[in-house]
Design brief:
Elements: E1 10-21, E2 24-35, E3 39-43, H1 50-57, E4 65-70, E5 73-74, H2 79-87, E6 89-92, H3 104-114, H4 120-133, H5 149-162, E7 167-171, H6 179-194, E8 198-202, H7 206-212, E9 215-220, E10 223-228, H8 230-235, H9 240-250
Parallel strand pairs: 3-8, 3-9, 6-7, 7-8
Antiparallel strand pairs: 1-2, 1-4, 4-5, 9-10
Helix pairs in contact: 3-4, 3-5, 4-5, 5-6
Length: 252
Amino acid sequence: MQTTTPPHDAIIQMTSVSKWYGKFQVLDDVSLSVKKGERVVICGPSGSGKSTLIRCINRLEEHQKGQILVNGIEMNDNVRNISRIRLSIGMLFQQFNLFPHLSVLDNLIIGPTLVRKMSRPQATELAMHYLEKVQIANQAHKFPLQLSGGQQQRVAIARALCMQPEIMLFDEPTSALDPEMIKEVLDVMLDLADSGMTMIVVTHEMGFARTVADNVILMADGRIVESAPPETFFTQPAHPRTRQFLDQILSH
């Protein structure tokens, strides 16, 4: 298994990563370093490569050029490397991806019992702990379609946490929600950030970015245009593209 020491104690290190869909280049020489416990928010216009970038980190998308290291392990064609890296990463999508035929509790325990080989009682205890954490324990025996969108997304967060990841990736986790449900999901993510979880969040929720992020990144045309702490990113952006993006999104 190929393991190297990532620079600057980074838990995630992407170096000159590029990806194409046919002739269309969706990622163009992207380099990104994320330290353990760091919270990174990625924003940018639709089609800028944000989702593809984070999906490459756990090999939901395959990059064609460059290097991705997670905990010093290279994400490549080595199946053992892919499996090890995926065990350390939880991911939340726009859609909840819950099994509709399973109860909330069973949705949570299926991963720990099958992948981490926990006993059902152990997995149940862990699941209830995280359902309490996302303030939805009283819904444990309901089915996903009996819940609101915001509740389903909180269940999805709890399910990811049951795998005890070191890193959480969020791909526009509130974009499919009604406006009144967004806050309840963002509140759970705020609590998670406060716990010290390493987080990369693709979102247009700029209030969340200001409050939570250690670093805010703007992507456009498959490249990282700007990367800065939130106070700099929002008040003194260096790049005209960043100023244009902020003008558009903050005026809505």
